[in-house]
Amino acid sequence: MKYLIWGDNLPAVTIELDRGESIYTQSGGMSWMTDGISMETNARGGLGKALGRMFSGDSIFQATYTAQYDGCSITLASSFPGNIMPLEVGPGREYIAQKGAFLCAQPTVDMSVAFTRAKAGFFGGEGFILQRFSGYGLVFLELDGSVSEIDLLPGQLIKVDTGNVAAFESTVEYSVETVKGFKNILFGGEGLFLSTLRGPGKVWLQTMSVVSLAEKLIPYLPTKSSN
Fold it and tell me: Least enclosed by CB within 10 Å: which of 42, 128, 149, 224?
């Protein structure tokens, strides 16, 4: 399977499939495709996994696209300004990502629910439910804004504002700590909590999120005029 990620702030990935090769994506994720690709829509993995996908920010139903002959191609576009990131999943290489990060993957990649600790779920900005990717093969994630990759050493800690955690290797410990200092809490503008990531493993941090962008746009949205 060959692929090309292209575009600037609103990227897309074009994947070339040979006969019998497949990818799956959430329902409605395909932008365009050449002739010779069949589509099958179902609740991949059964009802339990389908409901888990719903809570982790994706659709209950997923579509599998399979090439009927060599050289077919399919294009999937991101839904938000940012980056499309390919990850190679395999033994010892499992990944956890923010809600709604999944774009598409090979059928040998399993997407499941990853539950955070209770405190992190309540206050970490990512919720109780994240997305876990295991098995083997390629998965493509769509991340918000610009992305920085950091390789944490064993025991190395990084503190991140809520919503800026895009993805991390499953070896990384994800938790939450309280911002210290009364004036920091009231006037620091960072909220009450910070997400913490402790190595070893790689983490990917994003410069913005859909939620933070929406919050900044709210004051500029038109409202009903009072009579």
Answer: 224
Q: Are 211 and 168 in contact (CB under 8 A)?
A: no
Per the CB < 8 A criterion, the answer to whether 36 and 72 are in contact is: yes
SS3 of residue 50 by DSSP: helix
Flag whether 25 is in a domain: yes
- Give the pair of three-digit tokens for residue 67: 């090439």
pTM score: 0.82
- Looking at the DSSP bridge assignments, the partners of residue 199 are none
Residue 37 identity: I
> What does the radius of gyration of the chain's CA atoms come to, in whole angstroms?
19
d(CA 155, CA 142): 28
- The answer to whether residue 177 is domain-embedded is yes
Number of domains in the chain: 1
**pLDDT per residue as tens digits for the range 147-175:** 999 999 999 999 998 789 999 999 999 98
Structure tokens at 127: 């919720």
Residue count (the chain): 227
In a domain, 35, yes or no: yes
pLDDT of residue 226: 45
Q: Domain containing 51: what range?
A: 2-216
CATH number of 157's domain: 3.60.160.10
Residue 155 lies inside a defined structural domain of this protein? yes
Q: Is 121 helix (H, G, I), strand (E, B) or coil?
A: helix
